[in-house]
Each structure stands twice: as C-alpha cells, then as structure tokens.
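Subgroup meeting minutes
Present: P.N., E.W., G.H.
Scribe: E.W.

1. P.N. recapped why we're keeping a running log of single-chain structure predictions: easier to compare across weeks, and new members can see raw inputs and outputs side by side.
2. G.H. added today's entry (186 aa).
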Amino acid sequence: MTDDALTDERLAALLVRGLRPTRVELVEYAPAWVDRYVARAAELRAALGPRARLVEHVGSTSVPGLAAKPVIDIVVAMDDPDDEPSYLPDLEAIGYHVRVREPGHRCLRAGEPDEPVNLHLRRPDDPEVRRHLVFRDRLRADEADRELYAATKRGLSDREWSDVNYYAEAKSPVIKEILRRAGWPG
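Output recorded in log:
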C-alpha cells in the first residue's frame, strides 16, 4: 500500500476479495520462519525463472528475535508486475492468488491457513523494494529500533481491525522514524 490515507473505499478498490476483518495476533520469533522462506523462495525461483530478478525475505518474520504475525513476507522484483498474463498462471499453479492490485504492485497470498505467505511483486527500480530491505536490515542490526518496533506492534495487536492494512497504517509513524534513522530519504 502507498502512503495515501486509507479508507474503506480506497481499500475496496485495491483489494481483490474486499476487506477482511482481522484480529492481529503476534507470536514470538520462530527460527522455522527462515526455513519456510527458503522453501517458498526456491519454489518461486523455479516457477518464475529469470522473471524473478530479486527474491528477498522481508517483514517481521525476517528479523531474528522479533515477534510477528506468523506470515512470511517475500518481495520479488520483476520487470512488469502489471503484466499478469506473463506470470500469474505460474504463480496460481503453486497456490498463490491475487489479493491486492495497484499500479506497479501486486500482493498475492498463499499457504492459508497453516503457513501463510504474502508475496509482493514490484519493479526492480521501485523504491519500495529498497525501503523493505533498508527497514529489515535496520531492525536486524539495531536492538533499540527492533524493540521500539516490537513494542509498537504489541500495542496494536489483539484488537479487531476492519482489514490488516489499517494495522499496517497504524505502524507507519514508527516505521518512518526507524527508516529516517537508517538514512532513508523519505
């Protein structure tokens, strides 16, 4: 999602299956998340071949020691995420379905309910790719920022959200603060 303020109407226009009310529940870090990512990344590389120009584990499950929703987030850089006919059948064949459609970005979901994965497809030059990596690397390297982020997430969890995107938006001020300390220009 972009930095524009979220509304139910805006989300309804982007979400393929509409808003999904949810309760965000965090669990303690699990080393098995790395293994889940490695297996999914290999599967994605096999399905997409050279179309996958970058495959990276991002999000809270990519940060050792950080409590998270047990959802593996993966970003794949590819030349044209808007050209669904060139890749979507291959991803659907391995269990992914489109959840978000916005220009230059697709979010697909797989593995529900037991081992959920969010797959973000973006162009290699999309600043969001780099932003994900800078944020992940900062949390891996800086204990104080990792603890700040964990405390923020705990304060927002265990409540009902009309969609998980509102939870993500509520974390934005802290994410921006951490990114600023990491030297992110935004």
